[in-house]
Amino acid sequence: MSELFWILLSAMVINNFTLTLFLGLCPFMGVSSRVATGLRMGAANIFVLVLTSISAWVLNTYVLADAPYLRLISFIVVIASLVQIVEMTIKKVSPTLFRELGIYLPLITTNCAILGLAIFQTSRGYGFLQGFAFALGAGLGLTLALVLMASIREQTELADVPAIARGTALVLIIAGSLSLAFMGFAGLLSAG
Amino acid sequence: MTTPLQVAAAPHLKGEMTTPRIMWGAVGSLVPVVAAATWFFGPSALLVVGSSTLGAVTTERLLGPPGALGDGSAMITGMLLGLTLPAGIPLWMAFLGSVFGIALGKVIFGGLGFNVFNPALLGRAFLQASFPVAITTWPGRPESWAALRGDNFAFPFASPQPDVITEATPLGLRKFEGADTPLWDLVTGSTGGSLGETAGIVILLCGAYLAARNYLNWRTPVSLLATTAVLSGALHLLDAARYPPPLFMLFSGGLLLGAVFMATDPVTSPVTNRGRWIFGAGIAALVVVIRVWGGLPEGVMYAILLMNALVPFINRATQPRVFGTRLAQAAT
Hints:
The complex is a heterodimer of chains A (192) and B (332). Helices cover 75% and strands 0% of the residues of chain A. Chain A is mostly helical. In chain A, helix 1 (2-14) runs parallel beside helix 8 and helix 3 packs across helix 4 (71-93). The longest helix of chain A is centred in the first third of the chain and has 29 residues, at 35-63. The mean pLDDT of chain A is 85. Chain B has helices at residues 19-41, 43-63, 73-83, 91-105, 119-130, 170-177, 183-188, 200-212, 219-238, 246-251, 255-262, 273-293, 300-317, 325-331. Chain B contains 14 helices and no strands. In chain B, helix 1 (19-41) runs parallel beside helix 3. Chains A and B meet through helix 8, helix 9 and helix 10 of A and helix 5, helix 12 and helix 13 of B.
């Protein structure tokens, strides 16, 4: 149990996918202008990550046991179809959310965080529950990063930002600063 | 006699408390800390603090809005950054850290009042990530007070002279060698460490002066120090051999400097009093976690930066109720 907790915490904070490993930067830059949108993007990400983890585990255990060289391509195909299903569901259930997420939901398909999760999980040999905790932690970590970034961006909207830095430039600088701050968690797990 | 009618927009009564006044007050209260650092670390301390201050002031003058130097905030950033560095650091690194902190931590957000992260700490985090060896090389005490504590005048990007006698910080000793430092040494400051982190008593006195003049809000440092004491005290009671006593936690490392001068930065800390209590407690919790379980011996800088990132949230969560709103809700 405590191992699962450490996997979750490590994926969420210590090795945060976005701020420490620099995975999944497209949604981090693209959908972080409002906290509410960021939260929903994070929720979509958690959903896809958990599905990815489960399907990668199933693929690894039952289908690809004798053909590890097919891993990469099967991961991509399975994840892409999964995201299509998610997109169709969201389009049906919440057209507003679908419009707000716009291009970024299909982008999750090719998101390095998703593929990264499947590859990390495989190379670390996580079982089903460990993979689930890892995916949940990674998703929560992405959401945390998105929401932190969105709240800071909402605040800087009122700031007198110089013209050259407005928009993406400032977002990149905030992202770098957040990443510097997250370096403080380095090595937390190894000592504990 | 009739006096002409005076028409003016509010406010009609103005207080004496202005931003430059507070900032220059803080600059003045940093002078004793710099003096203490010079007493402990010799002329190297003055060189390092001077270099980082020069970097901050130059950057603010070149990139900032006209007249921004007058409010004294760039001066504080530079001095604070210098005080978080070891005495033997090459001067160009101290200069570069200030340039980074002011340019990318403050001016790019729109200058004073808009920055999200504390510029001094951002500059130090940048230096820590870029020059991890130079910033953790703590020089020992040479025979003569006037001797430099390291290769201060190293040429930029040349590898600095490695022949420095080093001394571990109390936190480093505790973490990597399991050795304790006597409390009296910690309080009086005769230990290794960054320039501004050894003179605990001086920092506390300066903080008390600032709080008495109402230049800083006492809630943040009180909440920070009390939470640190309670958390580390609880851990110490659980396992006295493994976890350090609360007084050691309070007086070692940059905790006092951070609590008095950095966590209280009016720009990067919450605007509500309830938020300030939460802010201080959050920093303390992160400091204890990073110091006790982390891979680094010291975590004050990261703890404050992380809590800086949470300030927009704290502000939102602690908005006071608008007068009369609950009545209106009850009526409908």
